[in-house]
Write a structure and sequence with these properties.
single chain, alpha+beta, 3-stranded antiparallel β-sheet, elongated, Commd2, COMM, Comm domain-containing protein 2
């Protein structure tokens, strides 16, 4: 895929960045139903990390290189994100693309984007107004015993108060309670999310927004 600086410059000028046509070359040879499936895979890139196994499976079925499948899906994702970000009409989706696509291929891409555009535009708008972490207060609570807790090990839980700002609610407080196993699982999920934020997939999508 083209570099970030070139991509941004050409997107501002309404032109397709260099290399995009080459990445879409595979799409040109696909039947319309396969083109729609590729568009669906491109749409999924905004919701989840890339799955190389999906690319390999599609490549095997088409008899092509998995890298060609991945490049085509990423290129379609770039086209749709760029158009949604600029709120361009569906008929202008392929404008400036230095690649002549068959009529049925173009129609399949435009039709898919037309159906997804409202949701994509909303996701791009709301994605910039997510709540931001401001602080966290916590208190450890331990139930040592009671009438119905004889001979049982003490149970510990955490009372959490999460402070956030921004987003639809503005400044807000969120009260939560969790026991130690669930808190450990939450910490593990957050660590995985931080790793994903640094992944090539996340950086690539961020460059397109």
């Amino acid at each position: 895929m083209p570099s970030t600086m070139h991509s941004a410059a050409h997107a501002q000028q309404g032109q397709a960045p260099p290399g995009l046509a080459a990445d879409l070359a595979l799409v040109k040879s696909l039947p319309a139903e396969h083109v729609t499936a590729f568009c669906g895979a491109a749409r999924q890139l905004l919701r989840a990390p890339e799955d190389p196994a999906v690319f390999r499976k599609a490549a095997k079925g088409l008899g092509v290189d998995p890298d060609a499948v991945a490049a085509a899906v990423r290129a379609l994702c770039y086209l749709m994100v760029s158009a949604a970000h600029a709120s361009r009409p569906a008929e202008d989706l392929l404008q400036g693309l230095a690649l002549e696509l068959p009529e049925e291929t173009s129609a399949a891409i435009i039709s898919f984007y037309q159906a997804e555009a409202p949701e994509m535009e909303m996701e791009l708008r709301t994605g910039l107004a997510l709540p931001e972490y401001r602080g966290l207060e916590w208190r450890l609570q331990v139930e040592l015993g009671g009438r119905y807790r004889s001979r049982k090990a003490p149970e510990a839980s955490f009372l959490l108060r999460l402070h956030t700002s921004g987003g639809p609610e503005g400044t807000a407080e969120h009260l939560m309670q969790a026991d130690l196993p669930n808190l450990r699982r939450l910490a593990s999920e957050l660590e995985e999310a931080l790793k994903e934020d640094k992944s090539s997939h996340s950086r690539r999508i961020a460059r397109r927004l």
